[in-house]
């Protein structure tokens, strides 16, 4: 799979999941509660369906590290600026600053696309290695029944949430507020899993 094709397929998959009803709200909750990178979560769903196995903790950490600097230094500052312009500083909000906020929103989306493309390349490189080692298993993956596919995505979601919960625990030790319900992240993740399960990857 060439990088350009992998990027396009991954981007279409991510958009197909994210645009389903309720998914943006669940993603936002995971982002706020755990600092979870939604792009990484969607990538891991994509990878799990491609590989036929849930990514392990080391792979999740590697994917996150691949785009950490870009996310921290580009995506998040754009997101923070867009959010801040909703209510201030003066003269915001007004028609002129609303137009500026729309421009920032477009830049944020472009920056997230760069992140998604880099993540897709990361998956493609590892898929090539795995394909050489177990081509037959990959073929079997493409024939998974829907219930097995959901179980695979659920396992992936649990591992991604656990990774970001560990990061959040470190922050809690430094004085941040403790989440009110530790099960909520998994509930939000489950809703996104069901959305991802409805997307037929091969038809994208």
From TrEMBL:
Q: Where on the tree of life does the source sit, at the highest rank?
A: Bacteria
Q: Please give the InterPro entries that the UniProt record associates with this protein.
A: CHP02444
The name of this protein is TIGR02444 family protein
Starting at the broadest rank, the lineage of the source organism is: Bacteria, Pseudomonadati, Pseudomonadota, Betaproteobacteria, Burkholderiales
